[in-house]
Amino acid sequence: MRRQVIFPTIQQHPYFIFPESVGWYYDMPEHTVYRPDGATSFSLHFLIEGKGYVEINNEVFTLHRGDAFLYFPQQPQTYYSSQDEPWSVHWVHFYGHKLKDLLVEQGFHRNLWTLKQWKGLLQGYEELLQEAEQNSILQRTRLSALTYSILVEFMSHATPLAANRGTDPVDHITNLLPAMQTSSSEPFELEHWAQKAGVTPHYFCKLFRKATGMTPMDFITLCRIQNAKQLLIENSSLQVQEIARQVGYPSVSYFNQRFMQFERVTPGQYRRKFHGH
Q1: CATH class, range 168-275
Q2: Could you tell me the pTM of the whole model?
């Protein structure tokens, strides 16, 4: 579900700060944002429920209730909701000529923050969203004042998110590898495993490659070939067609093709090499 209002950009205005858009996303596990070139405005997101992830310099950080993230204009942005615990996140995009100087001077050059007291911040988001929904851009001075109150509440109570709150990308994957290996003979469903890791399929693949050096499907194929080799050696009476089916390949020709790619011999040749005939 979502509530959001987007305003036209005002090129020249007398305000210190003005909103570009404001919104609230909740119960949207598919919520994913990827802006490699950043955006032209500042943005401040605040989690009130659930869990989400922010990527910074190839490191994935897990955010929970009470955490926030702040982006400056032109900063690359990658953030997304957890699949199993979708976040409820309030956000506002805003701009102003002197905002960067203020934020940097006050030490708010970081991206990740947490707040122990956030009742006032949540109230500010809700008031701004209600004003935007009811009056759009008609009450500009009030829009500016409400956006400023959000920024002040954030700056008054935010502290840097501890470095150890970062989640090593390997941890997203290594815990799933045994289960993936055990079920490798079943049809591979990327969405299923991404959901278990709590990330989107796109980022699951990205994290998987970083953690293992291969794609998820490459790993599944390795597991299937290993299982096939075990069956070829241990059960000489089992036909190749049946082995192909047991390890996850309904098509014996495709199984032979994949086996050849990895072992440089056919399944039959591999079996004869170990049984001497």
Answers
A1: mainly alpha
A2: 0.65
